[in-house]
Amino acid sequence: STVVMVFQAPVKKNGDSLSEFKFSVKCGDRIRVGEALGRWREQ
Amino acid sequence: TSFIIKKLQGQAATQARASFNGGSGSSQGDSFLVPGATVATLLMLGVLHARRMYDEKKVEEAQEKGIECEFQPDLKATFLRLLPLRSISRCWGYLTSVEIPVRLRPHIYRAWARAFHSNLEEAALPLEEYASLREFFVRSLKEGCRPVDPDPQCLVSPVDGTILRFGEFKGPGAMIEQVKGFSYSVSSLLGASSFLPMVAEGHMEEDVDEPENISTNKSKKSWWRISMASPKVWDPVSSRPMRGLFYCVIYLKPGDYHRIHSPVDWNILVRRHFSGNLFPVNERATRTIRNLYVENERVVLEGPWREGFMAIAAIGATNIGSIELFIEPEFRTNQPRKRLLHSKTPEKRVYDPEGVGMKLKKGDEVAAFNMG
What is the ipTM of this complex? Predict the structure, then answer.
């Protein structure tokens, strides 16, 4: 079986805000429930 | 196969000697035919298995070299379309629901774990407690086996599995690559009535009110807008960052833990059920079956989270044709179809209270895949 997620997340906006979502996985990685798929930072 | 051939040749030699010494040639000859048919069948199965292993080895070597396998439909994929896969899946479900005698349970589940690399240490209950393979398959885990990442600015995996694809949709037309050389559209995966915001945007309310492919009746827009009216969304100051649209495809192997958890704190407003086909979704199938994820039976959950739109599509397969929702216990998939030509339009449910839906915390159990 397969799960597909589609979601909105913050991206960089003309450089003035530093919030940007980045995946923290690679294709082929094994992942488990509760582990981070990606993070964003608001500074 | 070679051992069996030697054995049978020995047997045939003794029979030949016996017949030479006056045994009845005809019955001896017939008995030789039976082993011959067996050997031929074994040989054919052996050859097919060897060829399949060779194909898989080739794919693995290509992937190790970083060569992406291209989409190449083949005869087997066409043949699969002719099979009653949903009925086969339901038969598999009946089979795996058969109650297993208590003393056999540990042995059968250990054999399953060895074959599919499951981790039995994590099972919440002792193996004797699972009455059938189907019950064992949808087992929950011991407390603390899956700690949720505490970072408030992270999105966690809803399932155990292997990351197949992920990325950001840029520009018009949100397409996800099924495999190199073949892509499918997200709106056909989630459904035409999805609230999928089609482009990255500065403000949620701009897009939420006017999603491209949604029937623009006021009531629908109003409650979606209300449900999105979290302070974050209505923040008039445009200091909020823009939002991109991302996707991630995760494949679950038969031995993986098959419950689905919530990836963030969100509200599930709507559930859509597409009762499609039940093709296998293994690596080979993704390379040879067109529109695999869009044709297979699937359940889509949709709703808002603090950073915008969220949707999860749980897609079934031949061996795992059932998707159970803990938030809607009476819901069933992979049911016999009343009509031959099944409608492509999904069966939909809006969760109460309308516009607010089901509230879930990050890590909460949402659904589970099951066999049959």
Answer: 0.92
